[in-house]
Backbone:
C-alpha cells in the first residue's frame, strides 16, 4: 500500500541533509546510507548511494526511472542460488 499524496514522499532527514550538501558542493562522492525505507526524489537523480543490505553496502546509481521507488528495492537482501532440483537433473 502506498503513502498518501497529502503526506508526500518519505525521506529520512539525515539522508536529505546529505543529498542537499552533495548538490550544493557538486561532489560525486558516494553517499553511504542505511535508510532503505526512504523514497527516491527527483533531486537525487544522478547521485550514487551505497545502500546497506544487512551485510555490505551495494552501490546504487539513481536514474530518472527510479523516482518514486524506495532505495531498498535496488539493494537486495537475499542471494538466490537457483533451485537445487534443477542442478541434480543436469
Residues:
Amino acid at each position: 500500500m502506498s503513502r498518501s499524496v497529502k503526506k508526500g514522499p518519505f525521506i529520512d532527514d539525515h539522508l536529505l541533509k546529505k543529498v542537499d550538501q552533495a548538490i550544493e558542493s557538486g561532489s560525486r562522492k558516494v553517499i553511504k546510507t542505511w535508510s532503505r525505507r526512504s523514497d527516491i526524489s527527483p533531486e537525487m537523480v544522478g547521485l550514487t548511494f551505497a545502500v546497506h543490505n544487512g551485510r555490505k553496502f551495494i552501490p546504487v546509481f539513481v536514474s530518472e526511472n527510479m523516482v518514486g521507488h524506495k532505495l531498498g528495492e535496488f539493494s537486495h537482501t537475499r542471494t538466490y542460488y537457483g533451485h537445487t532440483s534443477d542442478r541434480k537433473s543436469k
Notes: The longest helix spans residues 13-25. The mean pLDDT is 91. The chain has two helices and three strands.
